[in-house]
Amino acid sequence: MAFSNLTSKAVLLYDEWIKDADPRLEGWPLMSSPFPTTFIIGTYVYFVTSLGPKLMENKKPFELRQIMTFYNFSVVALSLYMTYEFLMSGWATGYSFRCDIVDYSRSPTALRMVRTCWLYFFSKFIELLDTIFFVLRKKNNQVTFLHVFHHSIMPWTWWFGVKFAAGGLGTFHALLNCIVHVVMYTYYGICSLGPAYHKYLWWKKYMTTIQLVQFIMITVHIGQIYIMDDCPYQYPIFMFIIWLYGSMFLVLFLHFWYHAYTKGQRLPKMARNGISKDQ
């Protein structure tokens, strides 16, 4: 009886909370509730940390070069498209880069932003393949906590972002992330073509710099919310989450930079094992 009452209260609270969701997303795939996303993420975590390595334990690594080439360059194309859509739905067509609130209207531009936010959210499920490829190729040392955490937390937090605040200043980090992914997945795509193409990767040393600049820009941009007196952004909690996330990875990359370039040592194991590909 007590469990039944608790469940009923939880359902009532959920029903009350979900009333504030953006009605424009009614009926969109994966947006009915956070449970499908949670289930997918849970399955992903179980596979890459337990089931997958066990299944591969007595098998030879899969040769996935052609598949990975197609995958990496497909992500490049998708990231280019999302960059363009983020720009055309706000960031290059009217946003101030300061207090940009969510436009909940059904204007063509506002709906374009909603579609772009949903596509960005969905792209995070596609990127789960990064880790699955590690497992199938028996690169289990690259399946670090940080890598799995990053790939898990992004789609889960973005479900709430899309459901309640598809637009405004909370999407700036997504725009930057798409731009960085164009560079990163181009690099990984060329890598997957084989050693003959590695001579074209002279710009590898700039990858860390690009990622570091990304997190500095995210942290500075979102930090404005604390010095603006009257910004009526609808969901300030999202600003804190983005600031926390950006700050955490900024610190990690500064640590990376210090060891790799200031001290001239080998990269920290955490960084070597996939932090640069997590972004």
UniProtKB/TrEMBL annotation:
<keyword id="KW-1133">Transmembrane helix</keyword>
<comment type="pathway">
    <text>Lipid metabolism; fatty acid biosynthesis.</text>
</comment>
<dbReference type="GO" id="GO:0009922">
    <property type="term" value="F:fatty acid elongase activity"/>
</dbReference>
<protein>
    <recommendedName>
        <fullName>Elongation of very long chain fatty acids protein 7</fullName>
        <ecNumber>2.3.1.199</ecNumber>
    </recommendedName>
</protein>
<keyword id="KW-0808">Transferase</keyword>
<keyword id="KW-0812">Transmembrane</keyword>
<keyword id="KW-0444">Lipid biosynthesis</keyword>
<dbReference type="InterPro" id="IPR033670">
    <property type="entry name" value="ELOVL7"/>
</dbReference>
<feature type="transmembrane region" description="Helical">
    <location>
        <begin position="143"/>
        <end position="162"/>
    </location>
</feature>
<feature type="transmembrane region" description="Helical">
    <location>
        <begin position="174"/>
        <end position="194"/>
    </location>
</feature>
<dbReference type="InterPro" id="IPR002076">
    <property type="entry name" value="ELO_fam"/>
</dbReference>
<dbReference type="GO" id="GO:0006636">
    <property type="term" value="P:unsaturated fatty acid biosynthetic process"/>
</dbReference>
<keyword id="KW-0472">Membrane</keyword>
<dbReference type="GO" id="GO:0035338">
    <property type="term" value="P:long-chain fatty-acyl-CoA biosynthetic process"/>
</dbReference>
<dbReference type="InterPro" id="IPR030457">
    <property type="entry name" value="ELO_CS"/>
</dbReference>
<comment type="similarity">
    <text>Belongs to the ELO family. ELOVL7 subfamily.</text>
</comment>
<feature type="transmembrane region" description="Helical">
    <location>
        <begin position="118"/>
        <end position="136"/>
    </location>
</feature>
<dbReference type="GO" id="GO:0034626">
    <property type="term" value="P:fatty acid elongation, polyunsaturated fatty acid"/>
</dbReference>
<dbReference type="GO" id="GO:0019367">
    <property type="term" value="P:fatty acid elongation, saturated fatty acid"/>
</dbReference>
<dbReference type="GO" id="GO:0005789">
    <property type="term" value="C:endoplasmic reticulum membrane"/>
</dbReference>
<feature type="transmembrane region" description="Helical">
    <location>
        <begin position="68"/>
        <end position="87"/>
    </location>
</feature>
<keyword id="KW-0256">Endoplasmic reticulum</keyword>
<dbReference type="Pfam" id="PF01151">
    <property type="entry name" value="ELO"/>
</dbReference>
<feature type="transmembrane region" description="Helical">
    <location>
        <begin position="233"/>
        <end position="258"/>
    </location>
</feature>
<dbReference type="GO" id="GO:0030148">
    <property type="term" value="P:sphingolipid biosynthetic process"/>
</dbReference>
<feature type="transmembrane region" description="Helical">
    <location>
        <begin position="35"/>
        <end position="56"/>
    </location>
</feature>
<dbReference type="GO" id="GO:0034625">
    <property type="term" value="P:fatty acid elongation, monounsaturated fatty acid"/>
</dbReference>
<feature type="transmembrane region" description="Helical">
    <location>
        <begin position="206"/>
        <end position="227"/>
    </location>
</feature>
<dbReference type="GO" id="GO:0042761">
    <property type="term" value="P:very long-chain fatty acid biosynthetic process"/>
</dbReference>
<keyword id="KW-0443">Lipid metabolism</keyword>
<keyword id="KW-0276">Fatty acid metabolism</keyword>
<comment type="function">
    <text>Catalyzes the first and rate-limiting reaction of the four reactions that constitute the long-chain fatty acids elongation cycle. This endoplasmic reticulum-bound enzymatic process allows the addition of 2 carbons to the chain of long- and very long-chain fatty acids (VLCFAs) per cycle. Condensing enzyme with higher activity toward C18 acyl-CoAs, especially C18:3(n-3) acyl-CoAs and C18:3(n-6)-CoAs. Also active toward C20:4-, C18:0-, C18:1-, C18:2- and C16:0-CoAs, and weakly toward C20:0-CoA. Little or no activity toward C22:0-, C24:0-, or C26:0-CoAs.</text>
</comment>
<keyword id="KW-0275">Fatty acid biosynthesis</keyword>
